[in-house]
């Protein structure tokens, strides 16, 4: 099957979200926004990927307005006039290039690191406190903390709509705050936010409902989740289809429009006895459109291809992906690392110019180009 004849590059309408193609840019932290404000370089970085055929740009995680939301240097904020003015330029540039745009709204929770307060110092408030020996003490969030964070997500989503974004993505994956509630490995609460799957999901449900109330019925809400955690790559949030259903149903009913199902390798079957991946299961359970992700264009055969120019191996991977898309296992395909290295990857795939694809290298993370 050739990529240019594939629905991957055709427009698609998913509820209230119309996209020029089914290719999505995966959210990737880049640390190039000093003082939390996206620069003109950030504008050009996203614009270029949209111009090359990415239908939906999902931004790097951008923090909601809560004192402990950020954990890393030079991560963009999604609050404050300066940061929102920076994002407005990105939105306009992506739209001018024909793409659609969704910020990924983020709170890192207890993954927060030392020295990352708003002024570069360690904060002495919020869910973290500094001890005399410079260690951070983490306390379980109070009901007031929870309400503050719910409100912060809702405000960010409202602001996203106001500056012309086409959707928002809520970062519920990879062991950050929302996921810290989901996962038994981090949720030690014995109140209404801890214990059963339903109770562990309650924080996310409250955020989704608040976001829905803030943006109205027709503004798309994308929700990203994962089995794996940065604290434990082998973690399984929902080890059986039944538990996955218990996990997803309340989120879906609370108002999620699209699920972004984060896997490290998209081709891995989620449960025994079926070839379906996480997106496939999620689509079947919820009936909602799903995004798949994970090493598209980056599997070991592909890397080998890069070295030996063995086109057969590469084409097999893309063929498998397109086959699954045709089989409606998922609706959209997100790509991450290939896009950091090679902004023109979508065009090269569409035009079959495999020999021009740039090889992946971690060196590429050092600059924003
Ligand atoms: C990521 N990823 C990620 N995920 C997320 O939800 N929010 C984020 O801010 C980031 N940041 C980030 C930075 C960098 C440098 C990388 C490489 C990855 C995960 C990313 O969205 C994606 O799920 C994985 O990279 C797998 O897709 P690829 O890269 O194999 O196509």
Automatic annotation (TrEMBL):
UniProt cross-references to Pfam families, sorted A to Z: Oxidored_FMN (PF00724)
The record's CDD domains line, in alphabetical order, gives:
OYE_like_5_FMN
Q: Tell me the InterPro entries matching this sequence.
A: Aldolase_TIM (IPR013785), OxRdtase_FMN_N (IPR001155), Oye-like (IPR045247)
Q: What GO molecular function annotations does the UniProt record carry, in alphabetical order? A: FMN binding; oxidoreductase activity
Q: An example Gene Ontology cellular component term from the record?
A: cytosol
Per UniProt, residues of the NADH:flavin oxidoreductase/NADH oxidase N-terminal domain are 8-355
What is the name listed in the Swiss-Prot or TrEMBL entry for this protein? 2,4-dienoyl-CoA reductase
Q: Which source organism?
A: Halopseudomonas litoralis
């Amino acid at each position: 099957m050739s990529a240019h004849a594939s629905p991957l590059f055709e427009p698609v309408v998913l509820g209230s979200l119309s996209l020029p193609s089914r290719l999505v840019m995966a959210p990737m932290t880049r640390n190039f926004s000093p003082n939390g404000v996206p620069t003109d370089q950030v504008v050009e970085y996203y614009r270029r990927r949209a111009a090359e055929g990415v239908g939906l740009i999902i931004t790097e995680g951008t923090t909601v307005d809560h004192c402990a939301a950020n954990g890393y240097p030079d991560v963009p904020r999604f609050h404050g006039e300066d940061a929102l003015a920076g994002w407005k330029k990105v939105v306009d540039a992506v739209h001018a290039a024909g793409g659609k745009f969704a910020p990924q709204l983020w709170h890192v929770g207890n993954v927060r690191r030392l020295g990352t307060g708003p002024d570069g110092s360690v904060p002495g408030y919020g869910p973290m406190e500094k001890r005399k020996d410079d260690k951070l003490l983490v306390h379980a969030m109070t009901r007031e903390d929870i309400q503050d964070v719910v409100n912060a997500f809702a405000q960010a989503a409202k602001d996203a709509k106001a500056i012309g974004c086409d959707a928002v993505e809520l970062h519920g994956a990879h062991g950050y705050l929302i996921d810290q509630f989901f996962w038994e490995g981090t949720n030690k609460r014995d109140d209404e936010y801890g214990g059963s799957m339903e109770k562990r999901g309650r924080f996310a449900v409250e955020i989704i409902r608040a976001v829905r109330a803030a943006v109205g019925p027709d503004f798309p809400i994308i929700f990203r989740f994962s089995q794996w955690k940065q604290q434990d790559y082998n973690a399984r949030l929902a080890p059986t289809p039944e538990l996955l259903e218990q996990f997803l149903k309340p989120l879906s009913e609370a108002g999620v429009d699209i699920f972004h199902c984060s896997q490290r390798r998209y081709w891995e079957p989620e449960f025994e006895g079926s070839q379906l991946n996480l997106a496939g299961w999620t689509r079947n359970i919820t009936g909602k459109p799903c995004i798949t992700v994970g090493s598209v264009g980056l599997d070991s055969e592909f890397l080998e291809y890069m070295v030996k120019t063995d086109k057969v191996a590469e084409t097999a991977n893309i063929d498998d992906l397109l086959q699954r898309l045709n089989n409606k296992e998922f609706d959209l395909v997100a790509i991450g690392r290939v896009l950091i290295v090679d902004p023109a990857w979508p065009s090269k795939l569409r035009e079959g110019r495999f020999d021009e694809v740039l090889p992946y290298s971690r060196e590429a993370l050092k600059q924003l180009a």
